[in-house]
# Entry
Amino acid sequence: MKKHRFAKKILLLLGLSLLVTTSTTLASPTLKTGSHGHDVMLLQQKLMEIGYAPGSADGVYGSGTERAVAEFQRDQNIHVTGVVNAATWRALKNVKSTKTWGIDIQPPAKTSDTTLAVKAPLAPNNVPILPRSKVSSIIQTAKNYIGTPYSFGGTTPKAFDCSGYLQYVFAKNGISIPRLADDQYKLGTRTKSTSQLEPGDLVFFTTYEPGPSHCGIYLGSGEFIHASSSKGVRIDALSNAYWQPRYIGGKHIVM
# Structure
């Protein structure tokens, strides 16, 4: 009889364990490229609220959502997969939402030079985002890293790639911009010629693939600063024999 009651208790405990596990799984669905539906839409909305740009909250897990998830995972020190697993859901739940995109927020708290304490909400597309009063600070911050080596995928002063460098410089000044050059190209308004560029505006080039695949910050007098693949962070002229034929346009972001 005692053995029978003991066996029933074991079965009951196993049943409760299975129920808890199942409930947790249902509450934290694994989402990845190709997923779609309400859970994906909730994920996209959360990413947008905390300053990451999945593209739109359309309920379809595409490349934009995967890229935003990967960026979030990197910032949260989660294994970067672009797949939303239980650990990613927990981190998303613990991150506070924010409603402003950050040009007037307080600057990041003091940290080591390889990390930023505050991630401002992502700047909107198609409008100027850089207050004129911050232009000199952006340019000075950019120049502080002259000589930093280049590394594809680099996002810290240990090594930068072109878009990682721009993202870092702007983040140091309290402005969050997208991670990749083609997304940064959506910022601001298109300039018709180089004569319309102002210091602080962005300039874009096509290099290893069609479209905007390289970027920099315009300094004035026909010069721009960027993270070049050959010599790291440096200043070059737009009229440079290499860069001039690859120039595809500037984006006016100063307001």
